[in-house]
Amino acid sequence: YNPEIIKLKAEPLSDLVTATDFANANTLRENMKRALVEFQLETSSCHCAPCHGNGIAFLKETRCECICPIGYHGTACEITERKDVTINGNWGCWSSWSACSGGQRLRRRQCNNPAPQNGGKPCTGPDVETIRC
User: Fold this and answer.
1) Which of 35, 77, 98, 131 is 20 to 30 Å from 7 by CA-CA measure?
2) 86-133 adopts what CATH topology?
3) How far is CA 70 from CA 77, 79, 103, 120, in A?
């Protein structure tokens, strides 16, 4: 084995785009970053999995499963004997992009996967995204 290889740090592909190589490097770099984020969000099998009771979704082979917190059980952590448990909100999936109107398209999502309950934290981040078209 070569210890020098281990010292190498992986860099995002977008960091390889420089002003020396491309006149519009900043725009290209931002577009690459945005495309990667969108790809990861839209291709994750567990992104919108309904794990209740603050369960955590994870991909096991090709199916989504939930890790249930103490006091919960069931395929989606939907069964509990606990009362008045704090449940933090989590985002549902993004809607499809709207038609182009006024030079932009938009999509929405709801804080309902699950919705906050019994004093749980609301979802963080925007519920609407816009892009130019």
Assistant:
1) 35
2) TSP-1 type 1 repeat (2.20.100)
3) 10, 11, 49, 17
